[in-house]
Amino acid sequence: MTEQQVQLTQSAAIDLIVAALIKAQANFKPVVKSAENSFFKRVVDGKQVNSRYAPLPELQDATRDALANEGLVVSQCFSRGAGVVPYRDKIKSLDGKSFEICDLSGYEVVIVTKLLHVSGQWLCGFLPLPTPRFDPQGATAACTYGLRTGYAA
Fold this sequence. Notes:
By secondary structure, the protein is α+β, with helices and mostly antiparallel strands. It is built from 4 helices and 7 strands; from the N terminus they run ααββαβββββα. The strands form 3 sheets. The chain has a 3-stranded antiparallel beta sheet. The radius of gyration is 21 Å and the shape is flat.
């Protein structure tokens, strides 16, 4: 990792935030995988069953108090990544009117997760996620998955 890349992922010093994170992790509550994902199956006793995962609110509930007690907070946001440039073209509808179409497949959403400490020190991670469909549903699905994954990391 280059020095410039390190500067994008952490503050100049991280000694206080690391010490606080170690203390906080010792007090995290157990995380229960209470939700089912019907799109991913696993085999249990020879039968296919839905995989299970912990929803974001459960991850937050298991960690928020311990983090806050050590002066830590998690902040998350997302942005559009640097995926392919959209294909634009003008086409004509059946009634002869012209309109523009835009193919956003291949775009990605980037989840930015930052761990902040009262000292001003911070750690940051970036999780780029491809969006096979860049419409509200595709983007929301990528963000939902990414926020949970980024928080858990």
